[in-house]
Amino acid sequence: MKKKEGGRAKGEGRDRGGFKASRHGKASAAGPKGAQKKAAEEREEAGARHVSAAKSRFLRGETIAPRPIDGKELVADLIDNAFLAYNAARLREACHLFTRKILDPDVTVGMTLTGALTPAGLGMAAIMPLIESGYVDWIISTGANLYHDTHFGLGLAMHRGNPQESDVILREEGIVRIYDVFFDYDVLLSTDAFFRKIITAPEFQRSMSSAEFHYLCGKYVREREKKLGIGRKSLLGAAYECGVPVYTPSPGDSSIGMNIAALALDGNKCVIDPNADVNETASIVLEAKRGGGRSAILICGGGSPKNFALQTEPQIQEVLGIDEKGHDFFLQITDARPDTGGLSGATPAEAVSWGKIDPDRLPDAVVCYLDSTVALPLLTAYAHARHKPRPLKRLFDRRAKMMARLLSEYRRAEK
Questions:
Q1: Rounded Cα gap, residues 331 and 346, in angstroms
Q2: Which one from 233, 289, 306, 356 is the annotated catalytic residue?
């Protein structure tokens, strides 16, 4: 058979068994199939254990041997014992990353919220406990999540419903639906009225960052909770009390922003300044890194809040010209695919190319492909079971100091 120049003849490129020689020039470990079959039969006949690949680096992971589930397990024990493969394993990895590294004392943790999480009760069930335990230091959320969160702080009711109901009939009866969450149309009207009332107060009559705006809103929501005697129901109220700054990247893209816009027609001076948001969020990350600490982002969903959190590093490096390397930890819960080009599904590896994630810390990144309404309660329960509360960083109270550092480094980089 005629050989190709500088190589084997056609059909001779692989050893017997269909495997190429390894990069080290040795025959494939798979070996001839006949010999493999005979060796297995001889082991079986002799009652010997199979150990032929025990030293492979690919088999160094823990063996899959869970204890039988008996119903007595705590959530954290169930995750450690039985979430061993596929997206269950990714959630287990997320829980381990969160509790074993992200919650270290020197890590500043940002959280992003996308999708209708608060209407489903996750503000009370998961996000508020994360805030109050010091597990989350700053938040970027859609305005819709903060608007619907306020319903609970005002004592307004949300109900579980059947998503198969006729939306025409629901509209006729004044019922609003977010998939299987139902509520009275008056809930919207009452919440709108609350925001329009407080936004006319003197302290709102200026330009401010969305963190300042939500801090003031949280104060009024907390006062209403106390007046109604309903306890703590709102994440805005919890963030206000804990000094956790809450930003929204698209202020006009929610009913809160719509009410601000309506009041502007009457001469109200309340304006949310997106420039302040961009610079304040960048200052939080820079302060975390320059203070000898690290930065982590916990992403629930994707969308604009995800980008707004991650763009802090390109803002620092690319736009302001300040030397930095990217966030240290990346933990995302999402149902978005990476191959459609959307930001929601973009992987941490892709974020490295933008300078958003430190390439040296890429192993400390987990993407969990799950609905946030499933993963977030489990992550919250795991964190409280496996990690003690952290002291509150109260970043809202430190905004002026952090902005001074950002401005100083920017001026120095410009020289």
A1: 12
A2: 356
Question: Rounded to an integer, what distance in angstroms lies between the CA atom of residue 114 and that of residue 134?
Answer: 21
Confidence band (pLDDT; 50, 70, 90) for 40?
confident
- Residue of 221, 220, 246, 247 whose CA lies nearest to 233: 221
- What's the mean pLDDT in 393-404? 97
Q: In angstroms, what CA-CA distances link 245 with 210, 237, 363, 395?
A: 9, 11, 28, 7
400 beta partners: none
**87-138 pLDDT per residue, tens:** 999 999 999 999 999 999 999 999 999 999 999 999 999 999 999 999 999 9
Residue 230, exposed/middle/buried by CB under 10 A (0-12, 13-18, 19+)?
Answer: middle
Cα separation, 119 vs 161, in Å, equals 12
* pLDDT computed for residue 43 by the predictor: 82
User: Rg of the chain's alpha carbons, rounded to an integer?
Assistant: 27
The CB-side HSE value for 27 (13 A sphere, CA atoms) comes to: 7
pLDDT value at position 27? 46
- The values of phi and psi at residue 382, to 5°, are -65, -45
Entry pTM: 0.87
Alpha-carbon distance 269 to 248, whole Å? 19
**Cβ atoms within 10 Å of 107's Cβ, excluding its own:** 17
CB hemisphere CA count around 288 (13 angstroms): 31
Q: Single out the residue of 337, 329, 334 nearest to residue 367, CA to CA.
A: 334
Residue 103 has which token pair?
């919650």
Q: Is 72 a residue of the active site?
A: no
Give residue for tokens 């695919």. 337
DSSP class per residue in 140-179: EE-HHHHHHHHHHHTT---EE--TTS-HHHHHHTTEEEET
Instruction: Work out the mean pLDDT of the chain and round it to a whole number.
Output: 88
Structure tokens at 224: 């209403």
